[in-house]
Design a protein that fits this description.
CATH architecture of the largest domain in chain B: 2-Layer Sandwich
Number of helices of chain B: 19
CATH topology of the largest domain in chain B: Aldehyde Oxidoreductase, domain 4
Radius of gyration of chain A: 19 Å
Number of domains of chain B: 3
Oligomer: heterodimer
Strand content of chain B: 15-25%
Distance between the termini of chain A: 52 Å
Number of strands of chain A: 14
CATH class of the largest domain in chain B: Alpha Beta
Shape of chain B: globular
Bound molecules: flavin-adenine dinucleotide
CATH architecture of the largest domain in chain A: 2-Layer Sandwich
Order of helices and strands of chain A: EHEHEEEHHHHHHEEHEEEHEEEEHHHH
Number of domains of chain A: 3
Shape of chain A: globular
Number of helices of chain A: 14
Structural class of chain B: alpha+beta
Amino acid sequence: MKPRPFAYRRATSVEEACSLLAGPVDARVIAGGQSLVPMMNLRLVSPALLVDIGGLAELQRVTLAGDALHVGALVRHRQLETDLLVARHVPLLASAVRHVAHQAVRNRGTLGGSLCHADPAAEFPACILVLEATLHIASSGSERTVAAGDFFRGMFATALEPGEMLTGVSIPLTAARDPAALHEMSRRHGDLALAGIVGRRGQGLQRWAAFGIEDRAVRLAHLETMFADKPQAGEAEMLAALALDLPSTAGAGTAGRAKLVIAAELARRCRDDIDRAGVAA
Amino acid sequence: MTSATTKAIGSSHRRGDAKLFVGGRGTYIDDVAMPGVLHVAFLRSPHAHASIVAIRTADADALPGVVRVVTAADLAPLCKGWQTSQTYPGYVLRTQYPLATDRVVFVGQAVVAVVAESRALAEDAVELVEIDWELLPPACDLEGAMAPDAARAHPDLAGNLAYQAEVGDPENRALFDEAACVVEAAFRFNRQTVMPMETRGVVASYLPGDGSLSVYQSHTAPHQLRSLYATHLGLDEGRIRVICPHVGGSFGAKIHLYSDEVATVAISRLIGRPVKYIADRMEALLADIHAREQIVTAKLALDEEGRFVAWRAETRLAMGAFSTHPGSSVQEADEAVRLAMAPYRVRHVGGRLEVVFQNKNIVGQYRGVGHPIAAAIGEHLIEKAAAAMGFDPVALRLANYVADDAYPVKTRTGIDLDALSHQACLRRLGEIIDIPALRAENERLRGEGIHRGFGIACFIERTATNAPSNAHIRKATAQDGITLSVDPSGAVRCAISVTDQGQGTHTVVAQVIADELGVPFDRVRIVSGDSQATPYGSGVRASRGTAVGGELALHASRELRAVILEAAAQLLQTVAERLSMTDGMIAPADSEQGNGISLADLAEIVHFKPQLLPRGAQVSLSLSRHLGHDWPALVPTNGVQASLVEVDVRTGAVRLLRHWAVDDFGTIVNPLLVAEQVRGGIAQGIGQALFEELVYDAGGQVQNASLADYLVPLASDLPDMVIDHVETPWPHSVLGAKGAGEAGTTGAVGAVLNAVNDAIRPLGASITELPMTPERMLAALNRL
Ligand SMILES: Cc1cc2nc3c(=O)[nH]c(=O)nc-3n(C[C@H](O)[C@H](O)[C@H](O)COP(=O)(O)OP(=O)(O)OC[C@H]3O[C@@H](n4cnc5c(N)ncnc54)[C@H](O)[C@@H]3O)c2cc1C
């Protein structure tokens, strides 16, 4: 379990990182290294060049920018867990961290790394889907934004093009203040989810997503409509909606069926939490 | 300070080496450095079953830093291959070689070895080796293994059956037909592995100059290894030295000899240079022994009063492609069938075992070997019978136990049992848990939709294997030995054949010596794990460290003490009978202080000024002692565990709330270490019950060969554990200690299984497949 040979450069600016990424060799960003290094050791990925962005202070900040909270790509999980602005404005993210790994991993893992890694069972992709966040992407000489809903393209696959890197995420404050909840089931504490559900209820809108079930974090359109029509829907209705939202899981035998049953229960728990939070608010 | 009033035996001495380990100052196998050492990586079979058509190594050979690419053909002249040393009548065996010869028979089997200047380079070169395979049908289905048209794991054999045996009483249908109540169940115990924190590894150095071989290996039986390497490599045993440095856990993984280990040693012989192989975690998952995989059907018949009338269990074990070596794979199934219901009086006990070849990795001897399954199946059916007949499960057990005062007994399956205490252990459990109150609380919570369950499992362990007259593991269970010496400073040196794999054998042996010799604990130092420095013996396995090593230490210490007192008597002009030694001071037992001599002063005289002693034979402050067939083959122990769980019936999640264990380990030399053993063992039993499963698909591919997917329970997943004891000293030794290393694992599986079933039985559900995953729980609860 040793990686194939690779070169290593530590970037001193976003611009330098982007130009290294745009170079002729197959280059990858390394942020916290918590997902990339194991994959390299297993020789599942073998970049020729690692571009370390760990020194880029400008990506490590959480700032209020107008009607959004901006979270830099290098903000560590531990920082999300303890940051006052996050706690105040996006409590969903702060509570999601409690399901992510253990302290040692949280000390190094970054929000950007988690989003770009796009593990189907990771919590943060589903969170930014229901928060309808915007991702900021830089490449040599240019910048663009992508809506969260367009970012996740499949297992470990995102909308990032070669030569691009994520610099941060903007979370609209209105969305972030809505009552929201996350529930997941994992076999051991801190493991990636066997199934997870995130929900948010805004003024006349429902935003729900599932993780750990399909090949990526997915929005649950049927569940959203169902909750809009029938806030107190029972298990059978939730199961029916989820089967439509998660077709490949619904067709995947008893293992898929088990995930749906669990997802329906998690959705109920989220809904009940949101109801309670709504009453309190 | 140790004083005359504080005995070392029975006190919780901390392991002297624990601080070293925690501080990163241990010497584990990968810490062993040798000048010029080369590194080995293996190309392992990606297929469960395939012929090797051609191997092309030119590109790998050409990679800078690669020293040699080795195939089976290179090693054939050096190693003849081997079969298990533990044979049974009719056991069909296939020969194993260091590297696969013309056919691979499981995913992960070593095929080609690359020797290079670093492990990373060796892995790079492995990727450059090309092999043409011809795929063969894999035999992976356990239920269908014996069907006439089933794929065969070894096509040269007529079928997949490697071994079968009837155990105990022959099947008697009438007893079941006429019984007042019969309960039965089909169990499935899925495949798991062992997972010591430190993986296996070998550093081997063959010196062509003098034909000597040094092998450092993460293993628990250096003498056994030395004999095996001599046999398998055709070398003079006298020129081989095997050293087991600090061992970071074994649990059975490191009592076996693996083909990659033999290959590494053979490679050093081949190229005449030191080589190192350290298994990585993925190799550990694929190629360390696997364990447990059995399908079992069992039934229990009772009369109206709840007396056990008849029992029958039939099991089929998925052995894998070979038998483990030197101890065999059969034990896992044999012990399961033989030990089930052993705590009870049952008129008729019988069973059958089948051991089948499969194109999967080899099943070997993991902590408990068969006993966790024996306990799980018997205890599950007892609780099921109690529920069916309306008996209290505690009362039902008490009514059927072999009484504590009825031992010794022989079970109907032929096992000798002595000095067990099921009644006392269960009574003790009843003292530390208010079981009726706990059950009433569970009942009340059920009304609130909270599904809690409480389950009990009692068990018998067979521990402390020794070299009895009927030993059938050649080169594995040998006579054991100890050498004790007193140095001029009065420090005591002990070289002993039992080893320390992290469980604290050294501490325990030192405690016994401190007490029996009469010296401070700190003045005793233990050496083990070096075939050149210690007497021949079997190392550790089967919870034998304290029972065997402690007994050896006791006898040797008493003899040496007599020698010391005799010499001191001559100096003090008295007779030895009037002297005693405490804390390293020798003095007349009945006089005031000052009239004695310290052991250090005596040793100084013996070593440097022997002329001060009367003429005659030189006093020898060094002696050896051995223990062999003057000791039973196996020491039985018993215990009972209980588990309290909460089942989330909506998600299938099982939450462990509390766990209790009451064990009878005979004399407890070190309560702290024993409690640690029980806790760690329970953790592994809980792993089997709820978490650990190596998933093979129908084609024999392992689906979860990483610790992200193979779930070992972590501290945060475990409940509080209450550990208690009953002490019935083993009557056939002086120390009276029994094995304590495996009981935790053995009892935990059945206790958790029973607790979960207690929680879901009122819902009309039951589960008998382990581990009890959320998916299996939901299926059992009829929610899928
Ligand atoms: C034991 C363990 C348990 C874990 N449990 C969980 C869990 O429960 N839930 C969970 O969500 N995660 C879990 N993780 C993963 C963890 O959260 C990782 O930190 C995260 O997935 C990746 O973040 P990172 O900063 O370490 O990224 P890295 O490992 O450095 O990179 C991951 C990938 O993202 C790319 N990348 C990183 N940053 C950028 C960027 N700014 N722009 C473009 N590409 C980028 C890299 O090139 C790489 O492909 C666990 C990890 C471990 C080791």
